[in-house]
Amino acid sequence: MGLQERKRQILKAIIENYIDTAEPVGSKSLTVAFDRPISSATIRNEMSELEEMGYLEKPHVSAGRVPSYAAYRLYVNELMDSAAGLTAEIDAIRMELEGKLHELDDLAYTASRVISSMTNQTTVSAVKSSGAKVQKVELIPTDNGHSYAVVLITASEVKSKMFRSYEPIDQSAVAMLSTALNLALTENRVEYLLPSIARSMGADASVFRLADAVIKFIEEVEREGDGNKVHVEGAEKLLNMREYQDASKARELMEYLSDSEKVMDMLDEAGDEPIGIKIGSELGDPRAKDASFVFTTYDIDSHTKGIIGIVAPTRMDYHRACAHLTAFKQAVRQLGSHPTDIGENDEHR
Amino acid sequence: MGLQERKRQILKAIIENYIDTAEPVGSKSLTVAFDRPISSATIRNEMSELEEMGYLEKPHVSAGRVPSYAAYRLYVNELMDSAAGLTAEIDAIRMELEGKLHELDDLAYTASRVISSMTNQTTVSAVKSSGAKVQKVELIPTDNGHSYAVVLITASEVKSKMFRSYEPIDQSAVAMLSTALNLALTENRVEYLLPSIARSMGADASVFRLADAVIKFIEEVEREGDGNKVHVEGAEKLLNMREYQDASKARELMEYLSDSEKVMDMLDEAGDEPIGIKIGSELGDPRAKDASFVFTTYDIDSHTKGIIGIVAPTRMDYHRACAHLTAFKQAVRQLGSHPTDIGENDEHR
DNA sequence: TTTTAGCACTCTTTTGTTCTGAGTGCTAAG
DNA sequence: CTTAGCACTCAGAACAAAAGAGTGCTAAAA
After folding, report:
1. Helix, strand, coil % (nearest 5) of chain A?
2. What total number of domains does chain A contain?
3. Which residue of A83, A124, A253, A283 is most buried, as measured by CB atoms within 10 A?
4. How many CB pairs under 8 A join A and B?
5. What residues of chain A lie within 8 A of the CB of B213, using their CB?
6. CATH number of the domain that B296 lies in?
7. Does residue B191 share a domain with residue B121?
C-alpha cells in the first residue's frame, strides 16, 4: 500500500516539524520545506488524505495536524534516515561515549547516566543474568574467627557475601564443607548435599548452618542471577517536555517506569535487531501510552545481557536516540571484544 | 521568648491544618479546634500578632495564613508531639518494617523502597563506608586459566572483582603475588609493593599487570569505600503534592535530589540526634527551598554508615515521618544487634 | 483589659463574554 | 492536478463582572 512519494515527503516533514516544536503543524508552514515549492492548498489536500489514511489527526478543526501512532510507526520503519547513513555523527558520539565508559564494570549504571546527560532525556537500563552456573565456591575465614566470606564464581562473574556466626566455626570442618560443596557443584547435586552433611558432621551445628546459608545463596544466584533491578536515570528530564507539564501525566509515566518489569520482559523478548523501538501503546501499558522507548540490548558475557533505552514522549527524536544507542552499542562491543592484558570486567552486582 | 500557651495552640492548629490541606487557613475554621471555643475575632487578633512575630504569612490579604519557615522550625522543636509519646504507633510500623527488612544486605535500597511505599513519599538513601581497611586479598583462578577473581575483605565487608588477562598467568607466580600482597597489607605498605614486584618477577609481565590492577582496586576501595551512590526512590510521588504540580518546580527539586552530594554531606555532619530535620532553606539549595528532609542515620558496621530520609514539601507531616524513621532505626538496631547463628550480612555493593 | 460581634474593604477566583487568529474545507479558476 | 480565495470553525486570549473568603478595625460586651 505504498504511499506516493510526495505524501511521504509531506508526512515526514510534518513529523519532523512536530518532533521539533511539539505543536500541531499547519499547511502553510510546510510550503517552504520543499525544493519545488508547493502551495498550501495542495498540502492541505494531501493532508486531508493522509488524515483519512490514519496518519494524521487534528486536535481540533482549527489547529494544524499531529502525527498519529501509525505515522510514527511508518516514520521509524521507512521514512526516517536510517542510522546507517549517519556514520559520522555516530562516530562522534561513540568517541565521546568511549571516553566515559571505561569498564564493563557497572556499565549499566554508568551508561544510563552518561546517555541521559548527553541526550538530556530519561534513560532506563537493566541487566539480567540467566542460567548462570555457579562453578566454584570459596569459603574464606576472616580474622575474628566467626565470620566467613563466601565467594561464588559463575562463568564470568564473582559474587560474594559475608556470613557471620555467633560461635566460632571449626576450621577443619569448614575445609571439608568447602570440598564437599565444590564437589557437589561439579556434580550438580547441591540440593542433596545438606542431608548428607547433617549426617556426617551433625555434631557441629554452626557448620551445618553455614552450609545451609551458603547453599541457599548458591540457589538464589542460580535462580535469580543479578536480581534484575531496573535503573531509571534522569526521570526529572521528562518534566521538561511539553507533554509532561501536567504533573499527573508525568507521575503516571514515572510510576510505570519504576514499577515495571516490562523492561525486563523487553530484554527477554528482544530479538536480533540492533535497535528496538516501542511506540506508545506498543509498550502495553496505558500509563505509557504517550511515550516511546528506544532501546538496545548488549551482551556483557554469555550469561549476562543488558538493555538500555531512552524514554520520551512519542514525538521524541527517534533519529537522535537511535544514533546514540547505536554509538553506545558500538562502544560496548569495542570495550568487550578487547580483553586487553588486564581488562577489568564486571563485578559483583 | 516563650510564646503564650494560647498562641502556641493556635499556631500548632494552623500548622497541622495546613499540613493536612495545603490551603491557607482562616480564622473561622479554627474556632472549632479548641475545648473552650474562641471566637474568630480573637483568633484573628492572635494571628496578626503571630504574623508580626514572623510565624505566619499571608499569600495575599484575603487568604488565610500560612506557616512560615520559623513556624515549622518551632513546630518540630517544641510544638509537635514528640515521637517518644508514640510508642504504640511506632511499634506497629516497626513490626511492619521488620517483616520486610530481612537482611542488612542491600538494606539501603530495600528500606528506601519500603518506606517510600509505606509513607507514599519520596525517600533518599545512601551508604558510605570510610576508613575501611582492606585486610585480606584472595586471588582465585577461574578454570579457563586466564581470569582471576580478586576478593578483598575489609572489616566486615567483601568486595570482589573479576580481572581477565589475555595470556594465561603463571600459577606459582600468582601464589607468590598473593602472599606478597597480604603481607604488604598487614604492614600497610601496599603502595611500595609494585616496584619490588617488578624487580623480583619482572619477567612475567602478565602477573605484573594483574598486581597493578589489584593494587589499584585495593586503593580504590580504601579511598572511596562504597562509591557513595545516592539512591532516590519514588520520585514520582512528589508529583502528587500540591506544591509540585508545577512541573518545573518538581523538576528542580528532582534535579537537586539526584545531582546532589548534599545527602552525603548530611551523613558526614549528622550528629547524634536520632532524627534530623532540615527545613527548606536549611537544605542549602535554592532548588530545595520549599522542601524538607527528615532523616536518620544508622550504622551498618563500624566503617559503614547509612542515611535514609523522607523528602517532601515543607508542609510535610513531620510527625508521621519521624515515626516511620524512628521505627526504622529501631528495626535496624534489632537486625544488627542480633548476630544470630548465621546472620546474613552485607555484601559487595 | 480582653473578647466578640459587625461591617467595610481587599483581593483572588470564578464565570461569562467577546475578540482574535490560525488553520481548515470548499469552490472555482488557472 | 494545482492554486487562489473566502467563508467557517474553534481554541485561547483578553477583558469584565460577580462571588467568596478572609481580613482589619471599631465599638460594644464581658
Report:
1. 50, 20, 25
2. 3
3. A253
4. 182
5. 342, 344
6. 3.30.450.40
7. no
* Domain match, A253 and A303 both: yes
- Using a CB-CB cut-off of 8 Å, the residues of chain A touching B147 are 156, 345
Residue finishing a domain among B58, B79, B100? B79
- Domain membership of residue A348 (yes or no) is no
- CB within 8 Å of A272: residues ≥ 6 apart: none
Q: Compute the distance between CA of residue A326 and CA of residue A311 in angstroms, rounded to an integer.
A: 16
Indicate whether A115 and A235 sit together in one domain: yes
CA distances from A233 to A116, A236, A254 (A): 7, 8, 11
Quick check: is A265 in a domain?
A: yes
Q: Are A151 and B160 an interchain contact pair (Cβ–Cβ within 8 Å)? A: yes
Nucleotide nearest to A63 (CA to C1'): C23
CB pairs under 8 A, 24+ apart, for A81-90? A81/A319, A83/A275, A83/A319, A83/A322, A83/A323, A83/A326, A86/A323, A86/A326, A89/A323, A90/A323, A90/A326, A90/A327, A90/A330
- Asked whether residue B349 is domain-assigned, the answer is no
Task: Clarify whether residues B64 and B143 are in a common domain.
Answer: no
Q: Is B290 domain-assigned?
A: yes
Question: Is the pTM value of this prediction over 0.90?
Answer: no
pLDDT digits (tens, 9 = 90+) for A33-56: 888 888 999 999 999 999 999 999
Nucleotides on strand C lying under 7 Å from protein C-beta:
3-6, 9-12, 21-27
| Cell 559474587 belongs to residue | A159
Choose among A136, A138, A250: nearest Cβ to B247.
A250
A158, A253, A302: best mutation site toward chain B, by most B Cβ within 10 Å?
Answer: A158
What's the gap in Å between the CA of A244 and the closest CA on chain B? 8
Dihedral (Cα; A63, A69, A75, A76), 10-degree rounding? 140
Using CB atoms, pick whichever of A136, A157, A247 lies closest to residue B250. A247
Task: Closest CB to B162: pick one of A156, A254, A341.
Answer: A156
Q: Do A257 and A310 reside in the same domain of the chain?
A: yes
Which domain CATH number covers B71?
A: 1.10.10.10
Residues A53 and A72 in one domain: yes
The one-letter code for the residue type at B140 is: I
For residues A124 and A235, membership in a common domain is answered with yes
CA distance B197 to chain A (A): 17
Choosing from B201, B225, B249, the residue where a domain stops is B225
Closest partner residue to A342 among B213, B250, B258, by Cβ? B213
Domain range enclosing B181: 136-225
- Say whether B158 and A160 touch across the interface (CB within 8 A): yes
In this structure, the answer to whether residues A261 and A277 fall within a common structural domain is: yes
Strand partners, B65: B25
pLDDT one-digit tens code per residue, A73-126: 999 999 998 766 678 888 889 998 888 887 666 788 889 999 999 999 999 999
Label each residue of B211-227 as H, E or C: HHHHHHHHHHHHHHCCC
Please answer yes or no on whether A164 and B343 come within 8 Å at the CB atom. yes
Strand D positions within 7 A of protein Cβ atoms:
2-5, 8-11, 20-26
Query: Taking CB atoms and an 8 Å limit, are B236 and A251 in contact across chains?
Result: yes
